[in-house]
Specification:
This protein is mainly β. It has a single domain, classed as L,D-transpeptidase catalytic domain-like, CATH 2.40.440. About 10% of the residues lie in helices and about 40% in strands. It contains 2 helices and 11 strands, in the order βββββββαβββαβ. Strands 1, 2, 3, 4, 5, 6, 7, 8, 9, 10 and 11 form an 11-stranded mixed β-sheet that branches. β2 and β3 form a beta hairpin. The radius of gyration is 15 Å and the shape is globular.
């Protein structure tokens, strides 16, 4: 996607700073967002509950055109719109809201392949309830964002775009 004279080219996700940054092809930051990565820290192993590091790319983008706060289960919209009453009715849910940006690892044996596969671990960038804090690692491995931020970012992304998580 072209913004001004430059194309949006890649994402950087900094686990230590809990930030996601969008860069153009001249390496100028054109978007900077607070995120929430894994409560269990960084790591690539299946079942670890950690956010995987390394070189990734956007494999699938889900939810274009869905309303803000749309609820997803199994990567499909349920038709529900998140609200406090729904949260009370379903306290066990790990809410995936608004959009899903499904990541795939590029590094065999690091974040791709048996035992470490980011895509098979269902690692996404996704929306979370606005009551959840950002800047604090609290997810089960995914990268959580504010819904309005994610919807704005989603419009600037494309499948195949590089994502570096460190």
């Amino acid at each position: 996607m072209v913004i001004g004279d430059s194309a949006v080219s890649h994402l950087l996700i900094d686990i230590a700073l809990q930030r996601l940054q969008l860069f153009d092809d001249t390496f100028i930051c054109v978007g900077d967002y607070s995120v929430s990565t894994a409560r269990n820290g960084a790591g690539e192993r299946d079942g670890s509950g950690c956010t995987p590091r390394g070189q990734h790319y956007i494999r699938v983008m889900i939810g274009a055109g869905q309303p803000l706060n749309s609820v997803f289960r199994g990567r499909r919209p349920t038709g529900e719109i998140y609200n406090p009453e729904l949260a009370i009715d379903h306290p066990e849910r790990d809410w995936i809201l608004s959009r899903i940006v499904w990541l795939c690892g590029r590094q065999w044996g690091v974040n791709r392949g048996p035992g470490v596969d980011t895509f098979r671990r269902f690692i996404y960038i996704h929306g979370t309830p606005d009551t959840e804090p950002m800047g604090t690692p609290l997810s089960h491995g995914c990268v959580r964002m504010r819904n309005a931020d994610l919807v704005a970012l989603f419009a600037r992304l494309r499948p195949g775009m590089p994502v570096l998580i460190f």
